[in-house]
Design brief:
The protein is α/β, with parallel strands linked by helices and 644 residues long. Among the domains are: 2-175, Jelly Rolls (Sandwich), CATH 2.60.120; 215-258, no CATH class. The strands form seven sheets. The protein has an eight-stranded parallel sheet with strand order 22-20-19-18-15-27-25-24, with helices on one face. A six-stranded antiparallel sheet has the order 2-9-4-5-8-7. Helix 7 packs across helix 8 (317-332) and helix 13 (442-467) runs parallel beside helix 14 (484-491). 50% of the residues are buried.
Length: 644
C-alpha cells in the first residue's frame, strides 16, 4: 500500500511540474497545413514542447493540449508509442482562439464503448471541442512524439501548440481567449465569411424579403401529396410501392408516381442550441432571454435559433415559423419531412412524412440489438407500437415507419457475443450459451446474432401490420453494408430497404446488391456535405466552399435517382448543427438553413434545380449531372501519409 501511495504522489508531482514548465515557457510550435497535399501535418518531440513529461502514461487518464486552430476542420492527434502510432480525430469549437482541450486517454487505449448506434459509439463531446474515435488502440508507453495531421486541408489552415500536460483527474476544458466564440445571433464570432450577419437591421431586411415572396410547386409538377402529375398509377388512399417499366416508385394516395425528396430534422429554430452554460458562459457574447427556446429537460441550455425566430416573428414565432418551413419546401421542391423532425410541422398535414418507431427495445439491448429473449419482450413491443401508431393509422400523409438507425453490431457480431458472455446473467446471455452448445466459433456467434435480428424484425413487423396495415415498413437505416445474410433476413419483413450513405455518390453496385438480395426498392436515409467557413466542422463529407456544397448535392442526388430501385433520399439535415456541439458533440455545417434562419443560397438553388430533374432522371429520359465537387473527401480512414 505504501509503495502505491508513493507512486501516485510521484505521478502528481511530475504532472504538476510539467504544467509549470510548459506554461511558463509559452513557446509555440506551429503546423502550417498545405492544401495542395492529400495529407499534411507534422510531428514534434514531446520533450521540446513540454520537458519532463514521462514516456509511460499508464498512471494518467487525460492528456491536455493547449492549442489554437485557425479552422474547425477535423485534425488527427496522435502519439508515437512503443507499439506504433495511435491517433484520434478532433474538432475544435474555438477556431481562431486559444483553448485547453483535455482528451481522455481511454480513447487511445480501448475500443469505443458499445452504444446502440454509430454516432453514440464514436462521438465523444467535450466543452471546447469534440472527439471522433477511430484508428489503432493500444497501451500508451514509450511515448516520445506527438503528431498532428489533416486530410485534404481547406484554405491552408494552421494549428499552434504550446503545451502538453497529463492529468489523473479530468481537469476540464477551458477557452482562453478574450473575444467570445459565439456572437449575439449564434454565429461564429472569431472569423468573417460571406453573408455573415453584421446587424439586426441587415437580418430584418433579409427576412422581410423572403416573407414577401410568393412561391408554388408548379415547376415540379407535383400533385396534392407530392407525386408527379404526369405519372398516374393505381390509387389506394395511402402510400405504397410499385414497379413499372423496370423502375420502382412510391405511389402517393391519389395514385401518382412519387419520389421521396426529403430532409431530416425539419424543425424551426434548430442549429443554435447552447449547452452547459454554467461551465462555458464566457464563450457566448450574449445569451437568449429566459424562456426563449430553453429546453426544460436540459438545464443550463438555450437556443439562439429560437431567439432569432422570436426576433423575426415575436410571440407568434412557433406558428409562423412552421408555415415558413412549408413555404420553403414548396419553393425548393422538397416533398417529404423525414426522420427526427418536428411533430408540429408534420401535424400540419401539408407534406408527406416518415416516422421512427419508439419503444421497440433497441436502447435496452446491446450494440443496437434488442434482447428478444427477455420475458414479455414481444408483448411490450406490441403495446408500444400500438400506442405509437394508432394516432397515424388513418393519416394519408404518412408514408411509413422506420424501426431503427445505424445499429452498431453490424460487422461486430463476434464482439457483441463476447460482451454478452462476459457480462451479467440475463436471458440474452442464456440464449447465446444454449445456442453455442459448448462449440463456440466466430461463425456460430454470427449466426446467433443474425437469428436474433430475424426474431426482432418479425416481432416488430407483425405488430406494425396488425395495428397499422395502411402504412409501410421502411426498415432500419443501416450505416454499413450489412452483407447478403442480413439482406436475406430483411427481404421478408421490410416493404422498403433503407440505408444511410455518406459518400460522393451511392455506389451503383451496392444498390444492385440490395435489390438482388431483397427484391425491394430503397431509401437513402442520410447524406450531406459541409465546409468550414462558418466555424463548424465540415460534416462527414467535406467540400471547399458553400458553392461546392450545392454542386455536391446535385451530383449525389441525381446519380442516386438514376438507379431503378432508389425511390427516396433524406438530406441530413434542415438546420446546421449547434456551433458548440449537440448532445454527442457533433457541430457540422450540414444545413439548408443557418442559425439566423436564412437559407444557404448555393444549397437551396441546387436543391430546387435538381428536384425539377428527378422525375426524368428516374424514368430514364434525363441524364444526371456529371459535375463533381472539387476535392470532396470523406471522414473515414486517413492514408498513412505525411506531407504528400
Amino acid at each position: 500500500m505504501c509503495n502505491k501511495i508513493l507512486y501516485v504522489i510521484n505521478i502528481c508531482i511530475v504532472a504538476y511540474f510539467s504544467c509549470i514548465v510548459t506554461t511558463s515557457a509559452q513557446k509555440t510550435f506551429k503546423i502550417q497545413f498545405d492544401s495542395n497535399k492529400e495529407v499534411s501535418g507534422k510531428k514534434f518531440a514531446i520533450r521540446d514542447i513540454s520537458p519532463g513529461i514521462p514516456s509511460n502514461w499508464d498512471g494518467y487518464n487525460f492528456v491536455v493540449l493547449e492549442l489554437k486552430a485557425s479552422t474547425p476542420q477535423r485534425f488527427h492527434v496522435g502519439f508515437t508509442t512503443e507499439t506504433g502510432y495511435n491517433e484520434l480525430r478532433v474538432m475544435s469549437y474555438c477556431a481562431n482562439g486559444w483553448n485547453k482541450l483535455a482528451i481522455p486517454l481511454r480513447f487511445y487505449r480501448d475500443l469505443p464503448g458499445a452504444a446502440h448506434d454509430l454516432a453514440a459509439t464514436y462521438n465523444q463531446p467535450r466543452y471546447t471541442g469534440w472527439v471522433n474515435l477511430g484508428g489503432k488502440r493500444g497501451p500508451l508507453r514509450g511515448i516520445d512524439s506527438i503528431g498532428i495531421r489533416m486530410n485534404v486541408p481547406i484554405n491552408n489552415p494552421s494549428i499552434e501548440l504550446r503545451s502538453i500536460s497529463l492529468s489523473v483527474e479530468d481537469p476540464g476544458d477551458q477557452y482562453l481567449g478574450d473575444q467570445p466564440v459565439v456572437d449575439e445571433f449564434g454565429q461564429w464570432n472569431l472569423g468573417n465569411y460571406e453573408n455573415k450577419i453584421q446587424s439586426a437591421e441587415q437580418l430584418r431586411k433579409e427576412w422581410e424579403a423572403e416573407d414577401a415572396e410568393i412561391v408554388s410547386t408548379k415547376a415540379y409538377n407535383y400533385a396534392k401529396f407530392g407525386g408527379y402529375l404526369p405519372g398516374k398509377l393505381r390509387a389506394t388512399g395511402f402510400f405504397h410501392t410499385e414497379k413499372t417499366n423496370g423502375k420502382w416508385w412510391f405511389v402517393d394516395p391519389e395514385g401518382y408516381q412519387f419520389l421521396s425528396v426529403g430532409v431530416d430534422c425539419v424543425s424551426p429554430g434548430g442549429g443554435g442550441n447552447a449547452r452547459d452554460l454554467d461551465k462555458r458562459d464566457h464563450i457566448y457574447k450574449a445569451l437568449p432571454p429566459t424562456g426563449i427556446g430553453a429546453n426544460p429537460r436540459r438545464p443550463n441550455s438555450a437556443s439562439f435559433g429560437s431567439w432569432n425566430l422570436f426576433r423575426r416573428y415575436g410571440d407568434s414565432y412557433p406558428e409562423k415559423s412552421r408555415e415558413l418551413v412549408i413555404k420553403r419546401m414548396d419553393k425548393w421542391g422538397l416533398n417529404t419531412i423525414c426522420n427526427w423532425s418536428s411533430m408540429e410541422v408534420m401535424a400540419l398535414n401539408r407534406k408527406a412524412f416518415m416516422l421512427q418507431l419508439r419503444g421497440v427495445g433497441i436502447e435496452n439491448g446491446i450494440m443496437g440489438l434488442p434482447d428478444v429473449y427477455a420475458p414479455g419482450f414481444a408483448a411490450k413491443v406490441d403495446a408500444s407500437i400500438r400506442e405509437f401508431v394508432t394516432p397515424f393509422r388513418e393519416n394519408p400523409w404518412l408514408i411509413g415507419y422506420f424501426s431503427g438507425n445505424e445499429p452498431s453490431w453490424t460487422g461486430q457480431e463476434e464482439r457483441l457475443c463476447g460482451m454478452l458472455l462476459s457480462g451479467t446473467d440475463r436471458p440474452f446471455k442464456e440464449a447465446l450459451t444454449k445456442y453455442l452448445g459448448g462449440k463456440d466459433s466466430p461463425e456460430k456467434r454470427k449466426q446467433f446474432v443474425i437469428e436474433t435480428f430475424r426474431i426482432f424484425l418479425q416481432i416488430v413487423n407483425k405488430s406494425l401490420k396488425t395495428h397499422d396495415p395502411n402504412h409501410l415498413n421502411l426498415g432500419i437505416r443501416f450505416g454499413h453494408n450489412p452483407g447478403l445474410e442480413i439482406l436475406a433476413v430483411c427481404k421478408d419483413v421490410f416493404d422498403v430497404f433503407s440505408f444511410n450513405c455518406y459518400d460522393l455518390a451511392p455506389k451503383q453496385e451496392f444498390m444492385d446488391q440490395i435489390m438482388e438480395g431483397t427484391g425491394l426498392p430503397m431509401i437513402i436515409g442520410e447524406y450531406h456535405f459541409g465546409t468550414v467557413d462558418r466555424g463548424m466542422a465540415q460534416s462527414l463529407w467535406q467540400v471547399n466552399s458553400q458553392k461546392e456544397r450545392g454542386v455536391a448535392f446535385s451530383y449525389y442526388t441525381e446519380q442516386a435517382y438514376s438507379h431503378p430501385g432508389l425511390i427516396g433520399t433524406a438530406w441530413f439535415q434542415w438546420c446546421d448543427q449547434d456551433l458548440t456541439g449537440r448532445f454527442d458533440g457533433e457541430n457540422y455545417n450540414c444545413g439548408l438553413v443557418d442559425v439566423t434562419d436564412r437559407p444557404y443560397p448555393w444549397m437551396v438553388e441546387a436543391v430546387g434545380r435538381t428536384a425539377q430533374k428527378l422525375y426524368g432522371i428516374h424514368n430514364g429520359s434525363t441524364l444526371p449531372t456529371s459535375q463533381k465537387p472539387v476535392k470532396a473527401r470523406g471522414h473515414g480512414g486517413i492514408p498513412d501519409l505525411w506531407e504528400k
